[in-house]
Amino acid sequence: MNIKGIHHVSAITADAKKNYDFYTDVLGMRLVKKTVNQDDNSMYHLFYADEKGNPGTDLTFFEIPRAGRTYPGTHSISTTSLRVQDDKALEYWRERFDAYGVDQDPIKETMSRKTLAFRDPEGQRLMLVSDENNEGVTAGTAWDKSIVPQENGINGLGPVHLTVAEAAPTAKVLTEILGFRKVGTFDDRIVFETGEGGTGAEVHIETNPELHRERPGRGSVHHVAFRVEDEAELEKWKDKIQDAGFPNSGLIDRFYFKSLYFREPNHILFELATDGPGFTTDEDEGHLGENLALPPFLEHKREQIEANLTPLETTNE
Predict the structure, then answer these.
(1) N or C terminus: which one in the chain shows less Cβ crowding within 10 Å?
(2) Which residues contact 245 (CB under 8 A, 6 or more apart)?
(3) What is the number of other CB atoms lying within 10 angstroms of the CB of residue 48?
(4) Residue 265's pLDDT is what?
(5) In degrees, to the nearest 5, what angle opens at C-alpha 51 toward C-alphas 155 and 146?
(6) Would I find Oxidoreductase among this entry's keywords (predicted)?
(7) Are 82 and 116 in contact (CB under 8 A)?
(8) pLDDT tens string 261-299
(9) Could you tell me if residue 25 is left (phi over 0), alpha (psi between -120 and 50 degrees) or otherwise beta?
């Protein structure tokens, strides 16, 4: 049993079209799956990733059209990192963000890595992280048909940043249940890693007891998922989490992967997700994300589902 790294991060948008435009036209990520929230089929679920949605590269969004603004605070996943291959790529992004009017901070160095923090149009808190000095989990492959040159492209998810009022309960779950290792601190944040380590396998915990609890909305993160090898291993994790006294969802078939959800003591939603079978299960790799994809158990409701969605053109060209 080994958590291999970050699998995906799922966030909230109030406008699927504007979200699609930013993440494909500005960030140059590939939409690898246009589907619906399986728990509420009235909303889109969009998956952006590398060339074919390799595990560890997916940033996903649920569309909730009436989502209000986010009031940042504790009990939250407060920054999502995106990997690029080297420091030179960050200079490219700094200039690109200037050209597109993206809200950004200066490039800075954190734990021997250069980083560039920025916000999307809804205030989603994001950070580009250079892999120039990285050792650990291998990144994905940036899409070669992206508007962004492949050598500068986003190729995976980096460290996930949690903000809590008290770090110890979350740290205990990470280390004693999920098998993460504490590897250091910076700026009053504690760094944990799993598997092969590196930017694709880290969780950073910031403690700030003076903040109020976050009120999520558009631009907030719903959950983070961690990678496990397969369904057999996921079953073992279910038993371990139950034995530790944490209520959980049990195994859920998301068609593209199998999942299990539970909340750690600071009420942050963790998911464990299998590496496969992947996004090419129901679509050709060359045409991922171009049509509304539904898992077989929702296909009989296609007409009803499509009638409740605002059409979204996603040509991936």
Answers:
(1) C
(2) none
(3) 27
(4) 98
(5) 85
(6) yes
(7) no
(8) 999 999 999 999 999 999 999 999 999 999 999 999 999
(9) alpha
Tokens for 55? Answer: 């595990």
How many domains does the chain fold into?
1
Maximal C-alpha separation, the chain:
52
What are the backbone angles phi and psi of residue 195, rounded to the nearest 5°? 55, -130
User: How much is the pLDDT for 190?
Assistant: 98
Positions in the chain short of pLDDT 70: 316-317
CATH number, domain with residue 252 = 3.10.180.10
Residue 175 is assigned to a structural domain of this protein: yes
Structure confidence at residue 317 (pLDDT): 59
- pTM > 0.85: yes or no: yes
Domain that holds residue 208: 6-307
pLDDT digits (tens, 9 = 90+) for 145-189: 999 999 999 999 999 999 999 999 999 999 999 999 999 999 889
User: What is the C-alpha R_g of the chain?
Assistant: 18
Amino acid at 67: A
Encoding tokens for residue 19?
């979200």
Q: Tell me if 197 is assigned to some domain.
A: yes
What pLDDT score does 188 carry?
A: 85
Residue 284 lies in a domain: yes
Phi and psi at 43, nearest 5°, equal -120, 145
**List of residues 6+ apart from 78 with CB closer than 8 A:** 72, 125, 161, 162, 163, 206, 214, 221
